Every structure is written in structure tokens, then in C-alpha cells.
Amino acid sequence: MSALEVAIEGMGLWAPGWRDWTTARSGMLGEAEADAGVTRPSADLLPPAERRRAPMPVLLACDVASQACAQAGRALDCLASVFVSTHGDLQITDYMCSTLAGAPRELSPIRFHNSVHNAPAGYWTIAAQCHQASTSISSWHCSLANALLEAAVQVLGENSPVLLAAYDAQSTEILSAVSPSDCLFGVAMVIAAPRSGLPRLRLQPGMRVAAEPDAAPIPQSFQKLARENPMAAQAMPLLAALAAGVPSRMQLPSGAASGLQIEVLP
Q1: Quick one: which of 43, 64, 137, 237 could link to 188 by a disulfide (CB 3.0–4.6 Å)?
Q2: Where are the alpha helices (DSSP H) in the chain?
Q3: 63-94 per-residue burial string, b: 16 or more CB within 10 A, e: under 16
Q4: 126, 134 in Cβ contact below 8 A?
């Protein structure tokens, strides 16, 4: 398969201490420190009642997606979207399994409604009044690579920008042993056809290579985040390269033996 080249029009990010991509980028460059007051994504797009009962992956996804659209100058209702999570909402999964095993008649209809993997995409499209196509992906620790490839194919195939939102919340109880995640993290990008003045990504799917390409180093202050959240671990090499603003190459796993080679062209 030939390499796919796309541009990034806008970005959003939320992590503990970092409310958006602008502050996080400053932190990666050593120009800012984490803000201890940033403890919960805002997701102001959602009506107050929805915000109160929406699960954390929904809040994360809607917050970073809104940021990316605003930075790109794109209306919320005009973009097709790709939503991706390593493991979905493990807190609801744990609740569902525990309740079904012990007291199935007590299962909450609202939490059952929120248990599906495309719940964040559903909340987003309703709140943004967006009728464009939406895809929800999960492929374990290969999730971000496959979502990037899906978004790029849609951009170039349809000649239209696509919103990509990636996120993982905390795991809980027994599921922490099989899918550990100790904090919240979300990142979003509006991806479009390449044009001058925008950072570009050149994506080449293929077999995974043993040697690590010339990737930008992850700043020390963000290494803990990468260890504690699976989506942060997948995204951090790309984010470090974009923050540094220098040409960089990296590889993200996309399957058992396959990888996505990414060249960042600032």
C-alpha cells in the first residue's frame, strides 16, 4: 500500500493538569507546568443534565473533539468522525458484569445504554447536531494506529476533513489486572488533505520493524502519563514530535506483526 499523506488542521487534548493542546505543548517544551486544578474534562458542549450522567469516556471525547474543531475553525456539525479507545469504558463493563452476576434485575437502564463502545460518538453527534458518518474503533494497544489509518483513508477517499478523537479512562476492580489504566487521557485531531502551512503526517502501513525509527523523545514530565494510560502511551511519541516541531519518524503497532510507520513533517 502506498504512503498516505494528510495534514493536521487542529488539535485538542485533555489530561490531568493539562486542559488543552496549547498548554500541553508548552509543557512538553518545558515552558509550562501542570495545573493541579485541572482534574476533570469540561465537555461544555453537552447540556448540563447530560454532563451529569454521561460516563467519563464521553466527557473526554466531547471535550477534546470540541477543542480540535475550534482550533481548526471547523463547524461541529460538518465533520465525519472516527472515535477510538483501547478498551472502552471498563468501569461500566465492571458494573455490568458484577450486577448481572449478583442482581441482574437491578441493572441500570442508563448505564446499560452507555455501555456500548460507540456511546461517545453517539453523544457527540447528537450534541453537535452532526449527521455525518461516524466510526468507532477498538483494537487494544493497536487502536490509535488503526484509527489514524482509517481517518486518513476517509480524508483522501472523500476529499473531506475528518475528526479523530482518541481517549481512555481509568480501569477498575478486577479489570485493572488485565487492562491497567490509572488516569484520564484524551486527544483529538482534525485531519485533512495536505496543504501548505499545516503539519503533515505521512503514514505507511506494513510489517512491524524491529529497529526503532528516529522518534522525538517523550519529555520526562509526560512519561508518567504514558505509563499510566494506554492511549497516552500510544499517542505520546506522535505528540512529542508535533510539539517539538521537527521532522521525526516513529512506528505504532497496528497488529500482531504489522506496524504503521509515521513521518511527521512540520
Answers
A1: 64
A2: 21-28, 48-53, 56-72, 90-102, 109-113, 119-127, 143-158, 220-228, 230-244
A3: bbbbbbbebbebebeebbbbbbbbbbbbbbbb
A4: no
Give residue for cell 484520564. Answer: 184
Strands 162-168 and 134-137: unpaired
Only one residue has cell 503539519, namely 199
Cell of 196: 501548505
- Return the sign of the alpha-carbon dihedral for residues 190, 10, 193, 153: negative
pTM of the model: 0.96
* Residue in this structure with the C-alpha cell 498516505, named with its chain if needed: 4
Cell digits of residue 102? 449478583
Query: Among candidates 57, 123, 43, which has minimal Cα distance to 88?
Result: 57
Contact between 221 and 15 (Cβ < 8 Å) = no
In single-letter form, the type of residue at position 59 comes to L
